[in-house]
Amino acid sequence: MRNKKILDKSINVKSDHSCVGCGVCQAVCPAGAISLGLDKDGFYKAHVDESKCMNCGRCQEVCSKFPEKFPPPREIPKKSYVGYYRTEEIRWPSSSGGFATALAETAIENGYRVIGAELDYKTFKLEHVVIDKKENLSRIRGSKYFQSRFQDILSRINKNGKYVVIGTPCQIGALRKVITGKKEYEDVILVDLYCAGVLGRNAVDKFVDYMKEINKSGIKIMNMRDKTSSWLLWGMKVIFKDGKQYYRNKYVDPLLYVFRTRQALQDACLECDTYKNGSYADLRLRDAWGFDPKKINEDFKKGLSQVLVYTDKGEELFSKAKNKIFCREVEFLAVKDFGYPRKRNYQLLELLRTNSGLVSIVNIYKRSLSIRDKFRHKLSYFCATDFYISFFKRFEKVLLALPKPVKKFLKKLLREW
Predict the structure, then answer these.
(1) Which residue from 40, 99, 190, 289 has the least number of CB within 10 angstroms?
(2) Are 178 and 288 part of one and the same domain?
């Protein structure tokens, strides 16, 4: 009887629980032994065919499940800037202030090609595509809060070519581990996005079905960070093929509600440390939350971006982009918390596996919330900003000390509110 293979150098050594689904392990596997598939919650997970695996260890070298294989990310940036794109035509449709477009345009003007995530409206899948013309940058503009197919990224980067690659911290971190020390990739600039986590296919498919109930013509354009109300009170905007529109702010739209609970994210996102302050990128982009926006620009409700500069290569690109933006150097503010739940609750993920519609799922989940969480959600709607939590905490002890009959009455009242 043949002895079973010992595959101690494959990613199978650790469970799928902490797999981020970036797919870079698949891209570097010399034996073609790794495939990417969807799990029961619609998240991409890597799987190793043990019959093909050579136990070479290449997959572990790029995988975030094995942080000991690579130096830790840089924690403190060289510089930090806050600002916005100078023209309204770019600033307004951007998720924040338009810094990503400024960097991408500058890159193309200097002979680079830009790689970013584009939403395919036929399949509703995110795919990283190569852009070499400024007029096509709108294809990758805007936030999309679900996983993209990143595993083909290396095949799209020609050796000795000039590229700017934009992705989530886990994607960019994995790519950094591949290209470090290789001369043929010295002209690749990495830009990561300050990421709050991603939703699985189950949630996205539920939303698409919900939109079909509203308008059967189909979705033409979807913007998950529309600023119709303001940058602070962003929301979901859908333009249908028949020209009609759907808009709900982030507190009302069911998909954004599910996203903002953080309870429908994959476990790997909730356990991620890189999203906070560490980065493997040359530049990091994020919303300019945490600053007094009026000190930057009185018209801040149109959106403000922040860029963190980590390397000389990143600083050179950003310096060339400054003629397109208004910016001010600011002190770097470390992020302590992203509002992730204190306790992991799998109820939303379990509901998303059922045949129930998205609105029904949200209503079931809301009814199950504690009185404290009900108040949090209600107050957030009226405050129109996530900073309401610090205000609410002043009264939290009083709320928790209320007698049970009073809590029961308030919970019933909030259910109808």
Answers:
(1) 40
(2) yes
The answer to whether residue 227 is domain-embedded is no
Q: Identify whether 346 is part of a domain.
A: no
SS3 267: helix
Nearest to 110 by CA among 65, 67, 68, 164: 164
Whether residue 90 is found in the same domain as residue 33? no
Q: Indicate if 183 and 278 belong to the same structural domain.
A: yes
Query: Are 165 and 289 contained in the same domain?
Result: yes
- Per residue in 278-328, pLDDT (tens digit) is 899 999 999 887 666 555 556 677 889 999 999 999 999 999 999 999 999
Question: Are both 272 and 407 inside the same structural domain?
Answer: no
Give the pLDDT score at 1.
41
Number of domains in the chain: 3
Containing structural domain, residue 21: 11-62
As a whole number of angstroms, the distance between CA 343 and CA 224 comes to 26
How buried is residue 414: exposed, middle or buried, by Cβ count under 10 Å (0-12/13-18/19+)? middle
Contact 141, 135 (CB under 8 A): no
What amino acid occupies position 396?
Answer: E
CB 131 within 8 A of CB 140: yes
pLDDT for res 298: 60
Phi, psi of 58 (to 5 degrees): -65, -35
- Round to whole Å and give the CA distance between 289 and 275: 15
Domain boundary among 37, 62, 87: 62
- CA atoms of 125 and 36, how far apart (whole Å): 14
Q: Which helix (H) or strand (E) holds 126?
A: strand 125-131
How far is the C-alpha of 129 from the C-alpha of 118, rounded, in Å? 7
Within the chain, which residues score under 50 in pLDDT? 1-2, 384-390, 416-417
> From CA 185, how far away is CA 164, in angstroms rounded?
11
Residue 159 has a pLDDT of 83
Q: Tell me the two tokens of residue 77.
A: 């940036």
The pLDDT score that the predictor gives to residue 403 is 83
Give the closest residue to 308 by CA, choosing from 76, 114, 83: 76
CATH of residue 26: 3.30.70.20
From 304, 329, 354, the end of a domain falls on: 329
> Which amino acid makes up residue 51?
S
